[in-house]
Amino acid sequence: MSDQPKNKATVYIYGQQYSIVGNESVNHMKLVASIVDEKMREISQKNPSLDLNKLAVLTAVNVVHDYLKLKEKFEELEKQLQEKD
Amino acid sequence: MSDQPKNKATVYIYGQQYSIVGNESVNHMKLVASIVDEKMREISQKNPSLDLNKLAVLTAVNVVHDYLKLKEKFEELEKQLQEKD
Question: Would the pTM of this model clear 0.80, i.e. be above it?
Answer without folding.
Answer: yes
